[in-house]
Amino acid sequence: MQYLFEDCVLDPERRELMRASEAIAVGPQVFDLLLYLVQNREHVVSKDALLKTVWKGRIVSESTLASHVNSARKAIGDSGQEQRLLRTVARKGFRFIGKVREIPTPIGFGSFTATPSDVADAEALAFPDRPSIAVLPFTNLSGDPKQDYFADGVVEDIITALSRNRWLFVIARNSSFTYKGQAVDVKQVGRDLGVRYVLEGSLRKSAKRVRITEQLIDATTSGHIWADRFEGNLDDIFELQDQITERVVGTLAPQLEQAEIERAKRKPTESLDAYDYYLRGTGNLHQGTREAIDEALSLFIKAIERDPDFASAHAMAAWCHLWRKANGWMTHHLQDITDGVRLAQRAVELGRDDAVALSRSGSVLGHFSGDLDGGIALIDRALVLNPNLAAAWFLGGFLRVWHGDPDIAVEHFTRAMRLSPLDPEMYRMQAGMAIAHLFAGRFDTASSWAEKAFRNLPSFLMVVSIIAASHALAGREDEASRVMNHLRRLDPTLRISNLRNWLPIRRPADLATFSEGLRKAGLPE
User: Fold this and answer.
1) CATH of segment(s) 388-525
2) Rounded distance, CA 435 to CA 449, Å?
3) Burial class (CB in 10 A: 0-12, 13-18, 19+), 464
């Protein structure tokens, strides 16, 4: 009997562990421990049971047992932080929670080892509990076999970069590359590898130019979700490879998230789990309106109720409170701030290696507690974990604006927009560009960016205030007065005297610029 899970095959007869079609060297006790946990996956296995079975009742220290469990996790591509396959149950023991398929070893075929496609013939692999994707080798259409290495390098970099998104399940390179040089049926690939999405592409070279095209496909329907192309010069191959990877991953991740949001919307309410509630909440958060944010907060709270350790759900719920404050929608000011800080702090505790949780929480803590340096540090850590996360770049840009570094902030907003040019939060990036240029004294540029954001969300209070202030500072008093009327309707309580309580502007010169512009536009003291 062989046991298959994710891209691993555990063969007790040959005492062999294969992962992504490669043999993984493990010690005999690690193998026995893993096998026993897989065979007894229906219940929690106590430490005593492991000691009795694996060590034959010998006395073994806690550190030795922990070391062997960690080695088993590493061998199957898991970790103590993720516990995606092998979970520690506090004060009880351990349980293997991965989805396992059992395949009989054929008689007379001692060298046979099952692969994901063998499982698919008998029963399709179940989808993981998060969005799943395989990146297939790109087809070399250049007629130059020497370009294969370049195309393969691009795909390998894309796989590595996508793997930094903890909410994604990404098939390993060795499994994806078994399809190299083959004409594939995307639906069959999805069944073979147990993934919902497939990214495929091609490379075409002409002289010193290269064109990469890529398309994202829903493997369950063969429907196209997204397609794009990238062109560049081959003068510096490694730089070009990095540019392609950044462009593809930065654009692809939001497209995948949007596809998952749409899928969650179609699910019946009675069958929603924590991740589905999180996705629905994210879709509402992107809309940015008062009603949508109220609904988003409710959905994130439901996600937390179903999974109290869901770091990103805590962070997004906290960020809903920030958005309420930014737009003057708080009804219980102190309670909203207290709840926002509590949720953000919990998100940081739960998600120290979760870029989404760290970036949203850093934004909230920097805004609510005034600890801009601490918030920036959290977002910088998020960018180390996932340098292609557009939200981390624009949220870090805002904190740098409030910190008094508008030119550095512009660089962050520019990077975010380049990474994700079709992002549903583009209006927030445009607003960031506007406030950064306002504080840098570039009033015409500030109003131009703010008006772009306004067209996407007319109720965005900060954007309307930037338009009013920048027009006034540029000498366009009539336009500033007209915009001020709209601003007063959005928040009748806003005054020059409470600007510092509204936005965490640290540098006195920036606060003075903003105050002067709004005062000239007609905002009361």
Assistant:
1) 1.25.40.10
2) 9
3) buried
* Amino acid occupying residue 91: R
- pTM value is 0.69
Question: CATH assignment of 132-263, given 3.40.50.150, 3.40.50.10610, 3.40.50.11720, 3.40.50.300?
Answer: 3.40.50.10610
- For residue 389, the model assigns a pLDDT of 87
For 406-428, write each residue's pLDDT tens digit.
999 999 999 998 888 878 899 99
Distance CA 197, CA 257 (A): 12
What would the two tokens of residue 378 be? 């959290």
Give CA–CA dist 323/292, Å, rounded: 11
* Residues 202 and 161: beta-carbon distance below 8 Å: no
Beta bridge partners of 132: 169
CATH superfamily of 267-382: Tetratricopeptide repeat domain (1.25.40.10)
Dihedrals phi, psi of 27, to nearest 5 degrees: -70, 160
Q: Judge whether 357 and 312 are in contact, CB under 8 Å.
A: yes
Strand (E) or helix (H) holding 419: helix 406-419
Whose tokens are 């193998």? That residue is 31
